[in-house]
Specification:
18 helices, alpha/beta, 531 residues, five-stranded mixed β-sheet, D-Maltodextrin-Binding Protein, domain 2
Length: 531
């Protein structure tokens, strides 16, 4: 009897194994059928955007493009998750020579840009042909984007390598029903005093004021950045060593090493007091929540507010069963009892870091891929695409989804990104901030460890930046010599120098000045101005 039962179990196991093999074979053949050439020119676009509405919206634009180009087929390959999985998949394709024609850009691609991706300067300096008939018709393609594609420029390679597609900004998503019940009105907080007062009333009613995730997510670090930008806005007056109107991380390092940046000050103490007071409204166990769990707690009505980006737009709009609202991170204000005397000005939003930037592989389909990106980033089509996932368009004048009107970039003040966000300092700073907001560290311990971290890492990152600056400068010299030789050849042949050569030489000169200023600043010399 036992032997018979064992035979039956073996046959069942064999059947399940065979069934599983057949299913896997069918799935493999099905995928192969979908990806095999269809007799048309095929473009493959890989990205990681698994948010609701993104795939469908991109398909909508693709169908319109294929109507204009019936001999072309554009396909999407979605590798969900912006982390290691996407990078590993793409790098494997790059090395194997089977890379997609268009890939959403990730920092992990940087070592491969020069040899495997197409430079875009020749295209972005000219108008987008698909903008014909609208106000952008005669404007260079790069100037049709918010921020002028400055975030797409690679200074070491002297070229543009990505096309932006959307803008990301951050706001407090809020449950207006909860806020209305707590404060008796529809008025959303604008100042930090008002925000804390609302949080206190919510807390009294047993409601978590702010659903926050672990510091490794967006909430805690972005709180710090918004506070820092308002209270240290004028820091550039003392550490903008190369006078470029901004504060780079190497300038923070030099400021620290030279004594122009100090951490243990009344200003920093006031900032950290605001951080601690804010974290008291995040609810218990915030440091145990991931960025995957926190938004769902908000959607389920477990808290009144959630601070995150516009990339969650469609998910929030469709999932929240309550009246959804939004408001910007509140301003400190001069009357704030904790930090009012240190208020320098409002924070603003950086348009140089766009979202879903797409890079073109250096494949035989390069020109076709660029043509599709031009079609995707017209004023009309960029609006159509971003309406799907409910994002902010990256192209000027494109229609903004009604639900995202409150996410329009705030062009006011500055957003100062301190050197806490570079290299290993980033990891260490998040650890310190998590311990401080969680109550493990007091202010003194936090400051002591922060200074120790800077003392260890600042010289290393500082030296690395110096090496990069010298390398960039040498490449600029080589390129400038080649362009100048072409100009001299035109003069020898008694031809007028092409205008684009003159423009390129002028731009190269400006970039050289920036490079020289950076190097001189690192070594403490007076910066060189434009002549």
């Amino acid at each position: 009897m036992n032997a018979k039962f064992e035979r039956i179990k073996n046959w069942i196991a064999l059947f399940l194994l065979a069934f599983g093999f057949i299913v896997c074979l069918w799935l493999t053949l099905n995928i192969h059928r979908d990806l095999k050439p269809s007799g048309k020119r095929t473009l493959l676009l890989a990205h990681w955007q698994g948010e609701r509405g993104c795939r469908e919206a991109l398909d909508k634009v693709i169908k319109e493009y294929e109507k204009l180009h019936p001999d072309v087929e554009v396909r999407q390959q979605i590798i969900v998750g912006a982390g290691d999985a996407y990078v590993r998949w793409c790098v494997t394709q790059i090395i194997a020579g089977t890379m997609p024609d268009i890939m959403e850009y990730h920092g992990g691609f940087r070592p491969y840009l020069a040899n495997y991706f197409a430079g875009l300067s020749d295209y972005v300096d000219k108008p987008n042909p698909y903008n014909k008939g609208n106000e952008l018709e005669e404007i260079p393609w790069k100037d049709t984007f918010y921020g002028g594609m400055m975030g797409s420029w690679e200074p070491e390679l002297l070229d543009y390598f990505t096309i932006p597609n959307t803008l990301y900004t951050m706001r407090f998503y809020c449950n207006k029903d909860m806020l209305r019940e707590a404060i008796g009105s529809n008025k959303l907080p604008e100042t930090m005093d008002e925000f804390f007062a609302v949080c206190e009333k919510l807390k009294e009613k047993g409601v978590i004021p702010v659903v926050a995730e672990n510091i490794s997510g967006d909430t805690g670090l972005q709180y710090f950045i918004k506070f820092f930008s308002q209270m240290f806005w004028t820091l550039e007056n003392s550490i903008d060593y190369n006078h470029d109107g901004g504060v780079a991380y190497f300038e923070f390092y030099r400021g620290f090493l030279c004594g122009d940046v100090k951490f243990n000050t009344d200003r920093m103490k006031a900032l950290m007091e605001l951080m601690k007071k804010s974290s008291d409204y995040w609810g218990k166990g915030a440091n145990a929540l991931s960025s995957d769990i926190a938004p769902y707690l908000f959607i389920q009505g477990k808290g009144a507010c959630y601070f995150c980006g516009s990339w969650l737009g469609r998910q929030m709009v469709q999932s929240c069963k309550f009246e959804l609202g939004d408001f910007p991170f509140p301003l400190i204000g001069k009357d704030d009892p904790t930090a009012g005397r240190f208020y320098c000005g409002p924070w603003g939003e950086n348009l140089l870091q766009p979202g879903m930037s797409l890079a073109v592989a250096d494949t035989p389909n390069k020109d076709l891929a660029i043509d599709f990106l031009q079609f995707l980033t017209t004023r009309k089509n960029n609006g159509v695409f971003n309406a799907g996932p409910c994002w902010l368009p990256g192209v000027m004048g494109a229609d903004i989804p009604p639900e995202m009107k409150g996410f329009k970039p705030l062009i006011r003040g500055k957003s100062i990104w301190p050197a806490f966000l570079s290299s290993a300092v980033n990891v260490e700073f998040k650890r310190l901030l998590q311990n401080y907001t969680g109550g493990t560290y007091g202010y003194g311990e936090f400051i002591n460890e922060l200074e120790s971290t800077y003392a260890e890492y600042a010289p290393k990152d500082y030296d690395r930046y110096a090496v990069q600056s010298f390398q960039r400068l040498s490449k600029l010299e080589e390129l400038r010599d080649r362009i100048d030789a072409r100009r001299q050849e035109a003069i020898t042949l008694k031809k007028e120098s092409p205008p684009e050569l003159i423009q390129q030489l002028q731009e190269l000169y400006e970039y050289q000045i920036i490079g020289l200023n950076a190097i001189r600043a690192i070594h403490g010399a007076a910066p060189q101005g434009k002549e």
